[in-house]
Design a protein that fits this description.
- It contains seven helices and no strands.
- By secondary structure, the protein is an all-alpha fold.
- Helix 1 packs antiparallel against helix 2, helix 2 packs across helix 7 and helix 3 packs antiparallel against helix 7.
- The protein is elongated.
- The two termini are 15 Å apart.
């Protein structure tokens, strides 16, 4: 099962890296999202070969695989932010929300939000806080993706498993 989680985590990691490098390039961002969604089929088809009976057992295995993928992707995100990014990712977020047009739009839609305080919080964020946020977000995504993965992993009637 750890091999399936590894392959699924590779999909997640490639998706993240493409998305991170494609800020401002919508076509590449879409490709990253598609690869991320492919993790459902990567995990589900590999789990299908295990002939897991029962919906609860399939969901548990799907959840375990997706959580392993989340941990692997978080590790890749740590490596990315520590050694490869150089602050570009956070700076692009700061640039987007610091843009007067975007700032005015946010203040109009969310009058109780002080955009400048949010920007100051982003500037002060440490790597450990950022990675913990990504780990929590990835875990939540893993829970959501485990549900469709469970259905893809359903054994097909009449097919023998390996």
């Amino acid at each position: 099962m750890s091999k399936i989680g590894f392959y699924t985590g590779i999909c997640w990691s490639i998706s993240f890296l493409i998305t991170a490098y494609s800020l401002g390039k919508p076509g590449m961002g879409l490709a990253g999202e598609i690869i991320g969604l492919m993790s459902i089929w990567v995990a589900g088809i590999q789990l299908r070969t295990q002939d897991i009976r029962g919906i609860r057992r399939r969901w548990h295995r799907s959840l375990a695989v997706q959580l392993l993928a989340a941990v692997l992707c978080t590790f890749v995100q740590y490596i990315f932010f520590r050694y490869m990014d150089g602050g570009t990712f956070v700076q692009s977020i700061l640039d987007f929300y610091g843009n007067p047009e975007n700032k005015a739009l946010i203040e109009h839609q969310y009058p109780s939000v002080n955009v400048q305080e949010v920007l100051n919080s982003f500037r002060a964020i440490e790597l450990s806080q950022l990675i913990l946020s990504f780990l929590i977000m990835n875990s939540f995504i893993a829970i959501l993706l485990s549900i469709p993965t469970m259905f893809v992993a359903r054994p097909r009637p009449g097919h023998k498993t390996i």
